[in-house]
Design a protein that fits this description.
about 290 residues; mainly alpha
Length: about 290
Protein backbone atom coordinates (compact mmCIF):
# COMPACT_ATOMS: atom_id res chain seq x y z
CA UNK A 1 0.00 0.00 0.00
CA UNK A 2 2.80 2.44 0.94
CA UNK A 3 4.64 1.62 -2.28
CA UNK A 4 1.52 2.35 -4.33
CA UNK A 5 1.03 5.64 -2.49
CA UNK A 6 4.62 6.70 -3.14
CA UNK A 7 4.33 5.68 -6.79
CA UNK A 8 1.12 7.66 -7.15
CA UNK A 9 2.73 10.71 -5.53
CA UNK A 10 5.75 10.45 -7.82
CA UNK A 11 3.48 10.12 -10.84
CA UNK A 12 1.47 13.16 -9.75
CA UNK A 13 4.66 15.16 -9.29
CA UNK A 14 5.91 14.11 -12.72
CA UNK A 15 2.62 15.14 -14.32
CA UNK A 16 2.80 18.49 -12.55
CA UNK A 17 6.38 19.05 -13.74
CA UNK A 18 5.47 18.13 -17.32
CA UNK A 19 2.41 20.38 -17.18
CA UNK A 20 4.48 23.26 -15.80
CA UNK A 21 7.13 22.70 -18.45
CA UNK A 22 4.50 22.77 -21.18
CA UNK A 23 2.97 25.88 -19.68
CA UNK A 24 6.37 27.58 -19.58
CA UNK A 25 6.99 26.73 -23.23
CA UNK A 26 3.69 28.34 -24.18
CA UNK A 27 4.52 31.44 -22.14
CA UNK A 28 7.99 31.50 -23.69
CA UNK A 29 6.54 31.54 -27.20
CA UNK A 30 4.25 34.38 -26.18
CA UNK A 31 7.26 36.35 -24.95
CA UNK A 32 9.10 35.64 -28.20
CA UNK A 33 6.15 37.01 -30.15
CA UNK A 34 6.16 40.15 -27.99
CA UNK A 35 9.89 40.48 -28.45
CA UNK A 36 9.58 40.23 -32.24
CA UNK A 37 6.97 42.99 -32.24
CA UNK A 38 9.21 45.23 -30.14
CA UNK A 39 12.15 44.46 -32.44
CA UNK A 40 10.18 45.46 -35.53
CA UNK A 41 9.37 48.74 -33.81
CA UNK A 42 13.08 49.22 -32.99
CA UNK A 43 12.26 49.11 -29.27
CA UNK A 44 15.38 47.12 -28.50
CA UNK A 45 15.34 47.28 -24.69
CA UNK A 46 11.75 46.02 -24.56
CA UNK A 47 12.59 43.33 -27.10
CA UNK A 48 15.60 42.26 -25.03
CA UNK A 49 13.50 42.00 -21.86
CA UNK A 50 10.92 39.83 -23.64
CA UNK A 51 13.56 37.54 -25.16
CA UNK A 52 15.41 37.11 -21.87
CA UNK A 53 12.14 36.24 -20.11
CA UNK A 54 11.40 33.72 -22.88
CA UNK A 55 14.83 32.13 -22.34
CA UNK A 56 14.24 32.00 -18.58
CA UNK A 57 10.96 30.20 -19.16
CA UNK A 58 12.45 27.82 -21.71
CA UNK A 59 16.26 27.54 -21.23
CA UNK A 60 16.49 24.90 -23.95
CA UNK A 61 15.40 27.34 -26.65
CA UNK A 62 18.93 28.09 -27.90
CA UNK A 63 17.62 29.97 -30.95
CA UNK A 64 16.80 32.83 -28.59
CA UNK A 65 20.49 33.71 -28.35
CA UNK A 66 20.28 35.08 -31.90
CA UNK A 67 17.31 37.27 -30.98
CA UNK A 68 19.05 38.49 -27.82
CA UNK A 69 22.24 39.19 -29.78
CA UNK A 70 20.31 41.25 -32.34
CA UNK A 71 18.58 43.22 -29.59
CA UNK A 72 21.95 44.09 -28.05
CA UNK A 73 23.21 45.05 -31.51
CA UNK A 74 20.30 47.47 -31.81
CA UNK A 75 21.20 49.07 -28.47
CA UNK A 76 24.89 49.40 -29.40
CA UNK A 77 26.17 52.62 -30.99
CA UNK A 78 28.88 51.62 -33.54
CA UNK A 79 32.21 53.23 -32.85
CA UNK A 80 31.26 54.33 -29.34
CA UNK A 81 33.79 53.73 -26.56
CA UNK A 82 31.27 54.39 -23.80
CA UNK A 83 31.25 51.66 -21.15
CA UNK A 84 27.57 50.90 -21.73
CA UNK A 85 28.04 50.52 -25.47
CA UNK A 86 31.05 48.28 -24.97
CA UNK A 87 28.93 46.14 -22.65
CA UNK A 88 26.14 45.94 -25.25
CA UNK A 89 28.68 44.96 -27.92
CA UNK A 90 30.18 42.25 -25.72
CA UNK A 91 26.74 40.86 -24.85
CA UNK A 92 25.80 40.82 -28.53
CA UNK A 93 28.98 38.93 -29.40
CA UNK A 94 28.54 36.43 -26.54
CA UNK A 95 24.97 35.57 -27.54
CA UNK A 96 25.69 35.40 -31.25
CA UNK A 97 28.64 33.07 -30.58
CA UNK A 98 26.38 30.77 -28.56
CA UNK A 99 23.85 30.74 -31.37
CA UNK A 100 26.40 30.19 -34.14
CA UNK A 101 27.94 27.31 -32.19
CA UNK A 102 24.52 25.60 -32.20
CA UNK A 103 23.50 26.68 -35.74
CA UNK A 104 26.71 27.11 -37.79
CA UNK A 105 24.84 27.09 -41.12
CA UNK A 106 22.98 30.32 -40.39
CA UNK A 107 24.97 32.65 -42.65
CA UNK A 108 23.06 35.75 -41.54
CA UNK A 109 24.01 35.15 -37.91
CA UNK A 110 27.64 34.74 -38.98
CA UNK A 111 27.44 38.09 -40.75
CA UNK A 112 26.01 39.71 -37.61
CA UNK A 113 28.80 38.27 -35.48
CA UNK A 114 31.56 39.34 -37.84
CA UNK A 115 30.03 42.82 -38.17
CA UNK A 116 30.18 43.18 -34.39
CA UNK A 117 33.82 42.13 -34.37
CA UNK A 118 34.54 44.72 -37.06
CA UNK A 119 32.52 47.47 -35.36
CA UNK A 120 34.50 46.95 -32.17
CA UNK A 121 37.78 46.53 -34.09
CA UNK A 122 38.17 43.10 -32.48
CA UNK A 123 40.14 41.80 -35.45
CA UNK A 124 42.07 39.18 -33.50
CA UNK A 125 38.84 37.77 -32.05
CA UNK A 126 37.31 37.61 -35.52
CA UNK A 127 40.41 35.91 -36.95
CA UNK A 128 40.42 33.43 -34.09
CA UNK A 129 36.73 32.68 -34.72
CA UNK A 130 37.34 31.98 -38.40
CA UNK A 131 40.56 30.00 -37.95
CA UNK A 132 39.57 27.94 -34.90
CA UNK A 133 35.85 27.51 -35.52
CA UNK A 134 34.79 27.77 -39.15
CA UNK A 135 37.96 26.65 -40.91
CA UNK A 136 38.56 23.72 -38.58
CA UNK A 137 35.07 22.47 -39.43
CA UNK A 138 35.56 23.11 -43.15
CA UNK A 139 39.24 23.57 -44.13
CA UNK A 140 38.19 24.24 -47.74
CA UNK A 141 35.82 27.11 -47.01
CA UNK A 142 37.26 29.63 -49.47
CA UNK A 143 34.83 32.37 -48.38
CA UNK A 144 36.09 32.06 -44.82
CA UNK A 145 39.67 32.23 -46.11
CA UNK A 146 38.79 35.41 -47.97
CA UNK A 147 37.31 36.91 -44.79
CA UNK A 148 40.40 35.99 -42.74
CA UNK A 149 42.62 37.60 -45.37
CA UNK A 150 40.61 40.84 -45.26
CA UNK A 151 40.75 40.87 -41.47
CA UNK A 152 44.53 40.57 -41.53
CA UNK A 153 44.70 43.42 -44.03
CA UNK A 154 42.41 45.47 -41.75
CA UNK A 155 44.82 45.07 -38.85
CA UNK A 156 47.77 45.96 -41.08
CA UNK A 157 49.26 42.47 -41.46
CA UNK A 158 49.94 42.38 -45.21
CA UNK A 159 51.93 39.14 -45.26
CA UNK A 160 49.29 37.06 -43.46
CA UNK A 161 46.59 38.61 -45.59
CA UNK A 162 48.41 37.48 -48.73
CA UNK A 163 48.98 34.04 -47.18
CA UNK A 164 45.25 33.51 -46.73
CA UNK A 165 44.41 34.80 -50.19
CA UNK A 166 46.87 32.28 -51.59
CA UNK A 167 45.23 29.59 -49.46
CA UNK A 168 41.95 30.54 -51.12
CA UNK A 169 43.75 30.17 -54.45
CA UNK A 170 44.75 26.59 -53.65
CA UNK A 171 41.09 25.72 -53.03
CA UNK A 172 39.55 27.54 -56.01
CA UNK A 173 42.35 27.07 -58.50
CA UNK A 174 43.75 30.00 -60.45
CA UNK A 175 41.38 32.88 -59.93
CA UNK A 176 42.31 36.33 -61.32
CA UNK A 177 40.27 38.03 -58.58
CA UNK A 178 42.66 36.73 -55.92
CA UNK A 179 45.67 38.24 -57.70
CA UNK A 180 43.70 41.46 -58.18
CA UNK A 181 42.92 41.68 -54.45
CA UNK A 182 46.60 41.24 -53.59
CA UNK A 183 47.42 44.14 -55.89
CA UNK A 184 44.69 46.34 -54.41
CA UNK A 185 45.88 45.67 -50.86
CA UNK A 186 49.49 46.34 -51.86
CA UNK A 187 48.49 49.75 -53.19
CA UNK A 188 46.36 50.49 -50.12
CA UNK A 189 49.22 49.66 -47.77
CA UNK A 190 51.79 51.73 -49.67
CA UNK A 191 49.52 54.71 -50.38
CA UNK A 192 47.96 55.05 -46.92
CA UNK A 193 51.10 54.21 -44.93
CA UNK A 194 53.96 56.05 -46.67
CA UNK A 195 56.06 55.91 -43.48
CA UNK A 196 56.52 52.14 -43.79
CA UNK A 197 60.07 50.84 -43.83
CA UNK A 198 61.22 51.70 -47.41
CA UNK A 199 62.48 48.18 -48.08
CA UNK A 200 59.23 46.60 -46.92
CA UNK A 201 57.16 49.14 -48.82
CA UNK A 202 59.09 48.44 -52.03
CA UNK A 203 58.59 44.70 -51.49
CA UNK A 204 54.83 45.16 -51.08
CA UNK A 205 54.59 47.26 -54.25
CA UNK A 206 56.58 44.75 -56.31
CA UNK A 207 54.49 41.87 -54.96
CA UNK A 208 51.35 43.76 -55.89
CA UNK A 209 52.58 44.41 -59.43
CA UNK A 210 53.49 40.76 -59.88
CA UNK A 211 50.02 39.69 -58.74
CA UNK A 212 48.21 42.21 -60.96
CA UNK A 213 50.21 41.16 -64.01
CA UNK A 214 49.16 37.57 -63.36
CA UNK A 215 45.54 38.71 -63.11
CA UNK A 216 45.79 40.43 -66.52
CA UNK A 217 47.49 37.39 -68.06
CA UNK A 218 44.53 35.28 -67.00
CA UNK A 219 41.92 37.92 -67.88
CA UNK A 220 43.23 40.26 -70.61
CA UNK A 221 40.23 42.65 -70.40
CA UNK A 222 40.63 43.12 -66.62
CA UNK A 223 40.71 46.93 -66.77
CA UNK A 224 40.41 47.24 -62.96
CA UNK A 225 43.67 45.32 -62.56
CA UNK A 226 45.35 47.45 -65.23
CA UNK A 227 44.18 50.57 -63.39
CA UNK A 228 45.88 49.38 -60.20
CA UNK A 229 49.08 48.61 -62.11
CA UNK A 230 49.03 52.29 -62.98
CA UNK A 231 48.59 53.24 -59.32
CA UNK A 232 51.39 50.96 -58.12
CA UNK A 233 53.83 52.43 -60.64
CA UNK A 234 52.98 55.83 -59.19
CA UNK A 235 53.90 54.42 -55.76
CA UNK A 236 57.23 53.28 -57.20
CA UNK A 237 57.77 56.77 -58.58
CA UNK A 238 57.15 58.30 -55.12
CA UNK A 239 59.83 56.10 -53.57
CA UNK A 240 62.40 56.61 -56.31
CA UNK A 241 65.18 59.17 -55.73
CA UNK A 242 66.73 58.90 -59.21
CA UNK A 243 64.93 61.54 -61.37
CA UNK A 244 65.33 59.46 -64.53
CA UNK A 245 63.78 56.34 -63.00
CA UNK A 246 61.10 58.42 -61.30
CA UNK A 247 60.06 59.80 -64.70
CA UNK A 248 60.24 56.33 -66.22
CA UNK A 249 57.85 54.96 -63.59
CA UNK A 250 55.50 57.92 -64.08
CA UNK A 251 55.46 57.42 -67.84
CA UNK A 252 54.73 53.72 -67.36
CA UNK A 253 51.90 54.60 -64.98
CA UNK A 254 50.40 56.97 -67.55
CA UNK A 255 50.61 54.26 -70.21
CA UNK A 256 48.68 51.83 -68.03
CA UNK A 257 46.16 54.52 -67.08
CA UNK A 258 45.40 55.20 -70.73
CA UNK A 259 45.14 51.48 -71.39
CA UNK A 260 42.74 51.04 -68.48
CA UNK A 261 40.52 53.91 -69.72
CA UNK A 262 40.38 52.42 -73.22
CA UNK A 263 39.58 48.96 -71.86
CA UNK A 264 36.85 50.39 -69.63
CA UNK A 265 35.29 52.25 -72.56
CA UNK A 266 35.33 49.08 -74.67
CA UNK A 267 33.70 47.11 -71.85
CA UNK A 268 30.96 49.75 -71.47
CA UNK A 269 30.25 49.76 -75.21
CA UNK A 270 30.10 45.97 -75.25
CA UNK A 271 27.68 45.98 -72.31
CA UNK A 272 25.45 48.53 -74.08
CA UNK A 273 25.44 46.49 -77.28
CA UNK A 274 24.52 43.32 -75.39
CA UNK A 275 21.75 45.14 -73.50
CA UNK A 276 20.37 46.55 -76.76
CA UNK A 277 20.46 43.10 -78.37
CA UNK A 278 18.57 41.60 -75.45
CA UNK A 279 16.07 44.44 -75.44
CA UNK A 280 15.33 43.96 -79.13
CA UNK A 281 14.69 40.25 -78.77
CA UNK A 282 11.07 39.06 -78.37
CA UNK A 283 9.99 38.48 -74.78
CA UNK A 284 9.49 34.75 -74.18
CA UNK A 285 6.05 33.65 -72.97
CA UNK A 286 5.92 32.46 -69.36
CA UNK A 287 5.95 28.71 -68.87
CA UNK A 288 2.54 27.16 -68.30
Amino acid sequence: MRYRQRAAAAASLLIAVVALSGCNKIKSKQEIKRGNEFLKAAQYQSALAAYEEALRLDPGETKLHKHIGIAYMGMYQPGSKHAKDLEFAQKAIENLKLYVAAYPDDKKALEYLVSMYLNTESYDDAINFYENDLLKKDPKDSKAMQSVAMLYFKKGDFDNGVKWLKARQTVEGNNPEVYYLIGVQAWDRSYNFPDLDPTFRAKIVDEGLEALNKAVEMKPDYFEAVSYINLLYREKAKMETDPVKKQEYTDTANKYLQQALEMRKAAQEKAKAEAAAQGGAPTPEPAK
